[in-house]
């Protein structure tokens, strides 16, 4: 069954997570996954964390595509674990993909959604 992990990294005075620490802690061994990242911070951090390994697909500039690409990888490579790491704003750009993921229900797909409380790529609303 696909997993959705959501990290809320702001507006929680008692439990603030630093994405730069939390995401690597969730992904102890990046080499175990085919990884698709969303925009900006997640793409940069995971590329740096993995030294831009061949199994890391950083989608800078393809807002809304990380979950669809992660689903595609999971379905195309059923013996490999796929991981899509995205932000809350990017997830909203293609929220319908969650329904498709639920329908397909790939057991090898994990989604991490980082909620930082603002939409940085479009002006920090």
Structure, described:
- The protein has 125 residues and is an alpha/beta fold.
- The chain has five helices and five strands, in the order βαβαβαβααβ.
- It has helices at 19-26, 40-49, 66-76, 88-93, 96-104, and strands at residues 3-8, 33-37, 56-58, 81-87, 109-115.
- A five-stranded parallel β-sheet has the order 1-5-4-2-3, sandwiched between helices.
- Helix 2 links the parallel strand 2 and strand 3.
- Helix 1 packs across helix 2.
- The model has no long low-confidence stretch (mean pLDDT 79).
Indicate the topology.
Blueprint: E1 3-8, H1 19-26, E2 33-37, H2 40-49, E3 56-58, H3 66-76, E4 81-87, H4 88-93, H5 96-104, E5 109-115
Helix pairs in contact: 1-2
Q: What summary fits the major beta sheet? A: 5 strands, parallel
Distance between the termini: 34 Å
Class from helix and strand fractions: alpha/beta
Compute the average pLDDT: 79
Helix content: 25-40%
Q: Order of SSEs, N→C?
A: EHEHEHEHHE
- Unreliable sequence segments: none
Specify the overall morphology.
globular
Characteristics of this structure?
5 helices; alpha/beta; globular; 125 residues; single chain
């Amino acid at each position: 069954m696909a997993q959705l992990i959501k990290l809320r990294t702001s507006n929680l005075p008692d439990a603030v997570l630093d994405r730069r620490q939390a995401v690597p802690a969730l992904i102890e061994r990046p080499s175990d996954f085919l990884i698709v990242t969303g925009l900006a911070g997640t793409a940069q951090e995971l590329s740096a964390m993995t030294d831009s390994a061949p199994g890391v697909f950083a989608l800078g500039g393809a807002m809304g595509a990380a979950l669809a690409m992660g689903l595609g990888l999971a379905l195309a490579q059923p013996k490999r674990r796929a991981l899509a790491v995205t932000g809350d704003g990017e997830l909203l750009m293609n929220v319908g993909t969650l329904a498709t993921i639920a329908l397909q229900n790939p057991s090898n797909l994990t989604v991490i959604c980082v909620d930082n409380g603002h939409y940085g790529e479009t002006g920090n609303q």
